[in-house]
Amino acid sequence: MSHTPGPWRIYVGARDETIQVGTADLNGDGDYIAEIYDERNARLITAAPDLLEALLLLVRPSSLLTIGPKERVLNVARAAIAKATGTA
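^ that's the sequence the OP posted. Answer follows.
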């Protein structure tokens, strides 16, 4: 499985009222992921790498053995949910 690694960010598009999602840093270097017209969908798309990380942590048996990893899984999952819902 391969995808553009995160973090992904939201940028106001140059054309119309589009929202762009990508990995660009402050210098503008990075990958373009998508161009979207709905901010809620853009937030969900930018949270995808974080949601994937939370799920990968959750399904790893070793992540569930001690309190520390459980807390990490919960923290990553909560942050991803906040990012996806715009409450971050």
